[in-house]
Write a structure and sequence with these properties.
This protein is mostly beta strands. It is built from 4 helices and 28 strands. It folds into 2 domains: 36-216, Immunoglobulin-like (Sandwich), CATH 2.60.40; 226-265 and 272-430, Immunoglobulin-like. One of its GO terms (biological process) is cellulose microfibril organization.
């Protein structure tokens, strides 16, 4: 049977649209230029190789690398060895039996390198090293959005024409999620001396760019959003099985809070393996957005972030929310704030994070496992309304991962009598009272 061309075209477009949902593309609409760039600068030649400075730049606005930190790996193209490292170390030495004396630091064809811990002796430290692999996000803390180390490579060639860049670069931060492109020759990096009177430059520079995909990082989401409002008694919970279902291997271990301390003490699991409180959503993190109050010229929202993971303290956490009224944010309580402006002049995206030494660590599940803040917005008469879910966020990210939102048709609805007011709860009560009088 012949199929009309128009139907065939619709079918092809349908297949292409489906493919978009399973792609592992790392493009993020709220951070279109975000990536981690690894810069490999050769600064001097040695008898059988070179000395290089390797720098990891986190150019992601709101995604950071938390404990236990980054792991950088690659494959040598020739028979290179690592003679020495400052500011980092290889996790394995490998087989160095062919060397009679002065054994190299690492002889593996595929070395894996990690950052050193705080408190490392000064003779082993390097600029921007020794933080246990933790790298903060660019918008949150640009001064600590970088990590670097020095490496001495042997058996590699001693000129620009004979040396070869490492290939198959991998970055775990600390788990999977990043895909790194091949090394590219770029203009040599220029350095400014400590007295700021002279510039030097690398002999040769390679760049490797790594991008993040939430689909590669894990099979299930890591956070969800619940909603409520003063004008409706309905509390919209996180969708059921947002991050997996109970008794599912995808969701991790689920325990009752009363026995969590016993299980945690005997499980021997590390921070990368969640030990979750049993919930209907099974997410490590829940973000609750509550439309709290409406005034004549302002309206107030309360945001609460709750940790349901008994195995994880989230240090340097951050939250990204998209809402059209962020261009009229007037006051913020107990959180830091920065507009992201991913769409040039449109200010509808905000990054929120904790205040240092106060609430910048989201404690593991339990009585202290939450942080909260209130946001005060000024009303724009031409745009403001409580109707049709306008007061709720369009999307929310936690630590760079997109959170599962409830379906729009379940949002707390505004009573019909007040749909065109959107002003104050007093008006809602007044209209309800008048309606009762009329019916009497």
């Amino acid at each position: 049977m012949d199929i009309p061309f128009s139907r065939f075209l619709v079918f092809v477009l349908f297949l292409l649209s489906c493919n978009r949902f399973i792609t592992t593309e790392a493009y993020d609409a709220l951070d279109p230029n975000g990536n981690i760039t690894i810069k490999w600068d050769i600064i001097s030649w040695t008898a059988d190789g070179y000395v290089a400075t390797v720098t990891i730049h986190n150019f992601q606005q709101y995604r950071h690398i938390q404990s236990p930190g980054w792991q950088l790996g690659w494959t040598w193209l020739k028979k290179e060895v690592i003679w020495d490292m400052v500011g980092a170390q290889a996790t394995e030495q490998g087989d160095c039996s062919k060397f009679k004396s002065n054994l190299p630091h690492c002889c593996k064809k595929t070395p894996t390198v990690v950052d050193l811990l705080p408190g490392t002796p000064y003779n082993k430290q390097f600029n921007n090293c020794c933080r246990g692999g933790v790298i903060n996000s660019w918008a949150q803390d640009p001064a600590n959005a970088i990590s670097s180390f020095q490496i001495s490579v042997g058996q590699s060639g001693t000129t620009n024409k004979t040396v070869r860049a490492p290939r198959n670069v991998t970055l775990k931060a600390p788990g999977p999620g990043y895909s790194c492109g091949p090394a590219k020759n770029v203009a040599p990096t220029k350095f400014i001396t400590t007295d700021k009177l002279r510039k030097t430059q690398a002999l040769m520079t390679w760049n490797m760019t790594c991008t993040y995909s939430q689909f590669l990082a894990r099979k299930t989401p890591t956070c969800c959003v619940s909603l409520s409002s003063f004008y409706n008694q309905t509390i919209v919970p996180c969708p059921t099985c947002s991050c997996g279902c109970q008794n599912s291997s995808l969701a991790g271990t689920c325990v009752d809070p009363k026995i969590a301390s016993v299980v945690r003490g005997t499980s021997g699991k590390n921070n990368l393996e969640p030990l979750l409180q049993c919930t209907q959503h099974m997410c490590p993190i829940r973000v609750h957005w509550h439309v709290k109050t409406s005034y004549k010229e302002y309206w107030r929202v309360k945001v609460t972030i709750t940790n349901f993971n008994f195995n994880m303290n989230y240090t340097q956490w951050n939250l990204v929310a998209q809402h059209p009224n962020f261009d009229n944010l007037t006051q913020l309580f107990s959180f830091n704030y920065k507009p992201l402006n991913p769409y040039a002049d449109i200010n509808d995206t905000a990054m929120l994070w904790g205040i240092k030494f106060y609430n910048d660590m989201l404690s593991q599940a339990g009585p202290l496992g939450n942080v909260q803040s209130e946001l005060l917005f000024r009303k724009n008469p031409s745009k403001f309304t409580f109707d049709k879910g306008w007061a709720f966020p369009r999307r929310i990210y936690f630590n760079g991962d997109n959170c599962v939102m409830p379906p729009p048709d379940l949002y707390p609805w505004l009573p019909n009598a007040a749909q065109n007011l959107g002003t104050s709860p007093f008006m809602i009560l007044l209209i309800t009272f008048l309606s009762v009088l009329i019916l009497m």
